[in-house]
Each structure stands twice: as C-alpha cells, then as structure tokens.
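job 3f2a | input accepted
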Amino acid sequence: MKAGIARRLGAEVVAILVAAGALGLVVNALSPRGIAITRPLTLRELDARYLTAEETRTRFDAGQTIFLDVRRAKLFGGGHIAGALNLPAEEFTKRFAEFAPMLPRETEILIYCDSKRCELSRQVAGLLAQLGYRSVKIFYHGWDEWKQRGWPMEK
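job 3f2a | predicted structure (155 res):
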C-alpha cells in the first residue's frame, strides 16, 4: 500500500514539474525580455544589413528610423547624426533597460559607429537580435562618412 502511495505521489510531482516547465517556456516565449533559449539569430535572419550612405540618408529624411550611435559618450559629444541616441556598445548590457522604452521593437533601428572598420555596430545588432529586435540596420560607413558629407549633425 505504501509503495502505491509513493508511486502516485512521485507521478504527481513529475506532472507538476512538467506543467511548470511548460508554463515557464510559454511565458518566456511571450515576454519581450525573455531569455534566449535557442541559438542567436544571424544578421541575415535578423534582417540586419549594411546600408549605404544614400540609403541611410533616405531613412533619416523619412523620420521613421531610430538612429543609435554606439560610440563612447565622449565621441558622441564631439558630434553625431542629428537626433541619434547614444548607447555605447561597452555599456549596452548595463544600460539597455534605460533605453528600452525609446527603442520600440516595431520601429527600424539603424546602428552606427565611426567607420566601416568599426565592429561595434555589428556587436550591438547581435545583442538586439537576442532581445527580440528584428528590424535592425547598420550604417556601414558610419559617422565619418556622414560628417564628411556635411549632413545634419549635432554636438
């Protein structure tokens, strides 16, 4: 008799654990801050592609895209694309929560740093992908090209 009770109790515990695990996976999948439990998306899957200067300017003029400068604050303070937000790549993990309300997932985000030699944009695009962002673009030539063309800037 005791063996039957122990077996039934063990089955109930397993059922509760399976149900809790399934519920946790569903909540994680639906949460905008869910933990990535699959491999990170590649930039191709993310639709993060490099944009030319002309494509970047077209998006700037349309006013529908959020520009995200991932250079250090000191460089950003020396000049940046007009209206851009500054979230330095090395501070991304620590400060993303502060920027999340300004970065709606349904809005295109265009990331840039100094130039085509700068890998910070690509790093941040990957981090945004892990957080569920799907419309991320990278201005390949970055701030140096924008400044050289004399396009709208701020300090």
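job 3f2a | The helical segments are 2-30, 43-46, 53-62, 73-77, 92-99, 120-130, 142-149.
job 3f2a | closed
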